[in-house]
Amino acid sequence: MAAPRLLAAATLAVPLVLLPAAAEAAPTFRPGAAGSGEKYFPGMGNGGYDVAHYGLRIAYDPATLVLTGRARITATAKHGLSRFNLDLRGLEVRSVTVDGKAAKWRRAGEQELVITPRRGIPAGKRFVVVVGYDGKPQQINDDPLGASGWVATRDGAVALNQPFGAATWFPVNDSPRDKAAYDFALTVPKGLTAIANGDLVSRKVTGGKTTFRWKMKQPMASELSMVAIGRYKVLRTNVNGLPSYTAIDTELATAPNQLRAYDKKNRAVLRWLQGKFGPYPFTSTGGVVDEVNVGYSLETQGRPVHDWSLKGKNPPDGLIVHELAHQWFGDSVTPARWKDIWLNEGFATYAEWMWSEKTGGKTAAEMFQLAYSAGPNADVWKGVLADPGRDHIFDNFVYQRGAMAVHRLRVILGDKTFFPLLRSWLAHHRNGTISTKSFHAYAEKYSGKQLDTYFKRWIHTAGKPKL
């Protein structure tokens, strides 16, 4: 019994020590992922941050094919970043700063620009990266998917980026999930015109060069950005107060009033689409016609580009309708993953069917029957719409079966539900990203109908569905 009493006395003799309040945990930093998790294109995009804005200052000389660029990228860290990546192919990096201070950088793999700032970037912090670079940008030639990226033409260049060409001419988080606003300052030799997405802000001649400034205010996926440099005939008009900027290569615009006819058709189609899909989602419109030799037209945001070679003739109505319909389906409302591309192409192709009906051609129902009449072993039935595979995202079945699936949904729901559903869907997800799953859920909630069987037969299963 003596020992406990002595221990108690000793304990009472020890002075009371107050512990300091627990210090805040030090921020943790780790590298941003070198990919965005995209199933079809694992090298595209990057993790760890979200881009809000690209400020691109680009000078291009068609005589030397050299591009000199400065990209100012404003982003927010999703987690503490010890380093992060941008996508950039081929071009030489000359300098990199993060928040105004020189940063370490290195190249890795085919397109990774790995940047290490002087200090870690805390989670939630907005930061600014500036990259100076130059070189001769090279287009990408992918065997199943075709050409994309910076394409030199006889008098300039055109940049068409779907699905992965943006990194050929500027450092970028090349993922459709990371939309951002854009400012372009494009400097070209005097006598050439430089066109980009959005609104024309200014045109300034200095010495032997002209700088064109363009602004895309609405969020844009990098695959929808564009630049067109060359000798163009240009027309500026408006659609119900909406600025329209159309251009045709001077060697193609050989017929009287050809440019005016092209502009008139664009404006007529746009007004009609607004009646079907709701308000136009951007602040300007128009289009560009040039001989690019890539074999396709593209729905570049706010101003589609048509690769065209017939002098004196304009692209057909179907192409104009398709690419302008994409301004709603694909541009404003964008699939977050490439496997859901039918949500772009199915609706844009169906717009062509509806335009045919409006202009006295086959009705949408007749177009459906014509496509559906393909035998059970036809290519149009061999793929799964919701997951066509990396090499098949531009296959005809994505377009034709996609349009058939849209028509079938229209039949199931009826026009009084179908068209309001589309307008509600587009308004609700404007400037955002979507998926097949989210469209399924939204269609059921809006219509009050159970649509599992429809989606299983038409969207998630290969083979010819029974009606």
Structural summary, described in words:
The protein is built from 9 helices and 23 strands. It has 3 domains: 178 residues, Immunoglobulin-like, CATH 2.60.40.1730; 102 residues, Neutral Protease Domain 2 (Neutral Protease, domain 2, Orthogonal Bundle), CATH 1.10.390; 125 residues, Neutral Protease Domain 2 (Neutral Protease, domain 2). With 467 residues, it is an alpha+beta fold. 43% of the residues are buried. The chain is globular. 25% of the residues lie in helices and 30% in strands.
Lateral strand order in the biggest sheet? 5-4-8-2-1-12-15-14
Overall pLDDT, averaged? 94
CATH fold naming of the largest domain:
Immunoglobulin-like
- What number of structural domains do the residues give? 3
| Whole-angstrom Rg | 27 Å
**Poorly predicted ranges:** 1-16
CATH architecture verdict of the largest domain: Sandwich
What level of helicity do the residues show?
25-40%
Strand content: 25-35%
Give the CA-CA distance, first to last residue.
93 Å
Assembly state of the chains shown: single chain
Structure summary, number of beta strands: 23
Number of helices: 9
Q: How would a crystallographer describe the biggest sheet?
A: 8 strands, mixed
CATH class assignment of the largest domain? Mainly Beta
Looking at CATH, the homologous superfamily of the largest domain is tricorn interacting facor f3 domain
The general outline is globular
